């Protein structure tokens, strides 16, 4: 029976030799590598990145659908130049004598209508994402759900503002000047309205599972918002029941400041200015523009909070 040499047996009992570079320094480096590995989520940087990615996704979808861009402008143009021209003939020569026409009065309402329809229908992407399963993938992301809502609202508001800017470029055709102060004011009010309406649409879409249901509810919401906002008729000298309803329309507090800004930069007779740019009144008090815009901002924050809460309940 062969015997194993003593030296070889001793080598078998020894612990395995350490690889080159082992020791205290290697242990510290190994621990540093482990510390560098971090699970995503929980930091505000992750939420900001999620907001940015969702916002970019909305813009990419909008830019790739050129047909949507064109068709979204058909209805406002028809209202402004076809309906506006027809109503101008019915209104007589009163506006014309003051240096403007009825299309000048309708222009702020048509711009607000562009924001309304584009912003609120941009929320339909939430329902589409739910039907095709993409929403579930977004919900399991290691970010707060409120960040997803903010990204959706930011994207929808940006798209609505871009559409409204295209309509704003047609201001000269209805005798509205391209004064820098006027354009700056109108753009700011458009952005505020876009955020408010997009947040409202997102809150409604967060609890819907079918596109058909969303379209029905949107028509039930959009049409009253539009017709009660004073986009097509002045808010003065209305029947009591209709005047009360207009005061509860959030869009009315966007259309009125825009119209007052426009009439501050166009020629109009005092009687015409009083009738068509008199502003929203509360029990005879003419609401200032600052109060109207503050109320719009408050409603935007309220609708955004409701949207975040509703989105948090989404399965």
Brief overview, please?
The protein is mostly helical and 315 residues long.
Order of helices and strands: HHHHHHHHHHHHHHEEH
Tally of individual domains: 1
The computed structural class is: mainly alpha
Fraction of residues in helix: over 70%
In the predicted model, the low-confidence regions spanning at least 5 consecutive residues are 1-6
Shape, please? Answer: globular
- Bin the strand percentage: under 5%
Query: Termini, distance in Å?
Result: 74 Å
Average pLDDT figure:
80
Instruction: Please report the total strand number as a whole number.
Output: 2
Side-by-side strand order of the widest sheet: 1-2
Supply the number of helical segments.
Answer: 15
Largest sheet, if any?
A: 2 strands, antiparallel
Give Rg in angstroms: 30 Å
